Amino acid sequence: MSLTTRLLDLLAGGVQSNPDGGFWMPEAASTGAPAVDNLFHFILWLSVFFFALIVGLMVLFVVRYRRRAGREEPEPSPNHNVALEVTWTVIPLLLVFVIFVWGFKVFLDLNTPPANSYEVLVTGQKWKWLFTYPNGHVDENLHVPIDTPIRLVMTSEDVIHSFYVPAFRIKRDVVPGRYAKAWFRATKVGEYQVFCAEYCGTGHSDMGTHVVVHEPGGFERWMTEVADFLNKLPPAEAGERLFKARGCAQCHTVDGGASVGPTLKGVFGHAVTLADGKSVTADEDYVRESILEPQAKVVAGFQPVMPTYKGKLKDQEITAIAEYMKTLK
Ligand SMILES: [Cu+2]
After folding, report:
1. Which of 12, 108, 178, 200 has a 20 to 30 A CA-CA distance from 59?
2. Ligand 1 centroid distance, CA of 287 (Å)
3. 12: domain range?
4. Pick from 225, 180, 241, 190: which is nearest to 211 by CA?
């Protein structure tokens, strides 16, 4: 530890970033986290110190110099004391400079990904996160290798979301029509909670998912395993995976309960009543159309809020989902 960080730690009241977290702080599992924590603790303890000093003196003076019987009126105080005024201006000014320079450095570090970062595309959408890898694999969890800089390029399909990983101390608003960027380097193998930190509608609190940090070599093994599941698994099982991974499960149950959308249990092969009063039999073509053009036939009793999956699901994937729906009797 260099002398400056030592001094800063001393200033921070000896409170350092604790990798396991504590009562106040979540776990710290990225290279950026200790810097954020140290600055936070510095500002916290500085504020505690001045709060105690100012309020303490105030209380002391109020008690000590209160009006009491038999005491003379005090002399009028001088209305100026240059030395005192310069002191209480210059010290806070210096402290604010320190906070600015320190904070700006941390801010720059948090916003400058190393040049060789591994890039993952993040899509926020009502109400899930999707992570797209360089090889085209899409996942609902963010899998990353340990000790590797990961650059996230994030955008939203609909409203403003906010990508928040407390253990990495990163939080970025994800706005439709533009790209938000963030980066981190994970330092501990494990699973870390992801939140959406911007209220984005009814399902906002369902937008939790996980960052899975793999041990060296584990990420590559995971990737080869998942990248090819469409060809390896039986279609119905692949369909089940897609159903969960692509966020269908956010709006559809498979156990008979209605949610934002109708349950998909017992739909396939049966008659469906549409909002315009007509009735259709749910076959492969109907499922395909429901996925690609959800508004073409709207199920009676539901709002037409399903997003289209045109360009997002391949034919083989849609077939797999239809096969999966056949198993939901
Ligand atoms: Cu959200």
Report:
1. 12
2. 27
3. 3-67+79-111
4. 190
pTM: 0.67
Please give the tally of structural domains in the chain.
3
Query: CA–CA separation, 128 vs 141, rounded Å?
Result: 10
pLDDT tens profile 247-259: 888 889 999 888 8
Whether residue 107 sits in one domain with residue 122: no
Give domain status of residue 73, yes or no.
Answer: no
Q: What is the CATH number of the domain that holds 247?
A: 1.10.760.10
Q: How far is the CA of 199 from the centre of ligand 1 (A)?
A: 6
pLDDT at 14 over 50: no
Centre of ligand 1 to C-alpha 157, Å, is 10
208: left (phi over 0), alpha (psi -120 to 50) or beta: beta
Ligand 1: centre distance to CA 201 (Å):
7
Residue 74 lies in a domain: no
Cα(260) to ligand 1 centroid in Å equals: 16
Query: What are the residues whose beta carbons fall under 8 Å from the beta carbon of 44, sequence distance 6 or more?
Result: none
Q: Is residue 56 in a domain?
A: yes
Ligand 1 centre distance from Cα of residue 123 (Å): 10
Q: Whole-number mean pLDDT of the chain?
A: 88
Q: How far is the CA of 326 from the centre of ligand 1 (A)?
A: 31
54-106 pLDDT, tens digit per residue, is 999 999 999 988 888 887 777 777 788 899 999 999 999 999 999 999 999 99
Residue 319 shares a structural domain with residue 268: yes
Q: Are 24 and 178 in contact (CB under 8 A)?
A: no
Does residue 44 share a domain with residue 130? no
Strands 209-214 vs 142-145: parallel, antiparallel or unpaired: parallel
How many Å lie between the centroid of ligand 1 and the Cα of residue 208? 9
Q: How far is the CA of 305 from the centre of ligand 1 (A)?
A: 16
Q: Where does a domain end: 227, 250, 269?
A: 227
CA atoms within 13 A on the CB side of 6: 3
* Ligand 1 centroid distance, CA of 173 (Å): 10
